[in-house]
């Protein structure tokens, strides 16, 4: 869920019988709530007073969700915020986001991101050899399994760019993206998150392997039939299906989804993935 600083609530003053109270700075989001970025250090008691008065004012204004972003250097304000009824929403390396639902209606604030995005890189050369690695860590450590280079897309990173980066990091092979061949969804993976895993075909632009010392035990170019024949691939349905898709693609009788750059509704560059070849053929007929 994206938030836009469409309008700013200035530092507001509320007259009470005995004193004037200053409220927390906030910006309205487009969903009837407010977002607060706390940046300056303050005494906990002062902060709690400001927070209580602010919630009272936002309730009168009919606001719904409250998002409070606390940078890591203000970790001392986390406990008092929670004691005022806020809950954790998500955290990054430098901040914690807490949320609070004001009205006495069902809470409709969106949950934290539910998925990670993983990639597997099917890199095949003109000799029908596949780039494969053995890992030093993880589930495949010590199992003598040759697998595709794999990894996780970074925040804000396109799938096509993530595949190219992971291959470069693990093997030092330069590539260009061709297609997404398949994807899968699994649940309850890393810390309970779901995972979307995309198998991407890439074309190698270099051939000399220089493996990543910290993560990769070995790397090589392997004939595709030898890769597919590995017992590990044959005994596991999901791996067998992917191997067979890659084999068919190497024989040019399978078409995946190309990356097509376009502008999003907000004007930002993005990629759509679809069967571009079939669409172009249909448009010419």
TrEMBL record:
InterPro entries: NUDIX_hydrolase-like_dom_sf, Nudix_hydrolase6-like, NUDIX_hydrolase_CS, NUDIX_hydrolase_dom, Pre-Nudix
Domain annotation Nudix hydrolase: ranges: 114-244
Molecular function in Gene Ontology: ADP-ribose diphosphatase activity; metal ion binding; NAD binding; NADH pyrophosphatase activity
Cleaved signal peptide residues: none
Keywords, ordered alphabetically: Hydrolase, Metal-binding
SUPFAM superfamilies the UniProt entry points to: Nudix (SSF55811)
Tree of life domain: Eukaryota
PANTHER family, A to Z: NUDIX HYDROLASE 5-RELATED (PTHR13994:SF26), NUDIX HYDROLASE RELATED (PTHR13994)
Family: Belongs to the Nudix hydrolase family.
Name of the protein: Nudix hydrolase domain-containing protein
